Prior knowledge:
This protein has helices spanning about 15-40, 55-95, and strands at about 50, 55. With about 100 residues, it is mainly alpha-helical. Strand 1 (about 50) and strand 2 (about 55) form a beta hairpin.
Amino acid sequence: MLHEPAAQSGPDPAFRFKKRLGAINFFIYAALYVGFVVINLVFPRFMAATVFAGLNVAVVYGVGLIGFAMVLALIYNRACGQQEEKLRDTEEAQS
């Protein structure tokens, strides 16, 4: 098995953008997750209520959290890709 050296990389010009967007996404998701936990602690019977196709609030909310995390990941990936492309185009224009 042939092992090549790792690809060399330099500083990431989009790092600040990625860090800020990642933090925003984290706090949005954390707020929704804290809501899930608080509802479970304060109103546990509410989570047992059937809301959709025989599924209770806990299942719908939980699956919704998973789906929302996937959507946030897709948004993050797309936004970071666009930012990297924009910065690359700017660097090429300056060269």
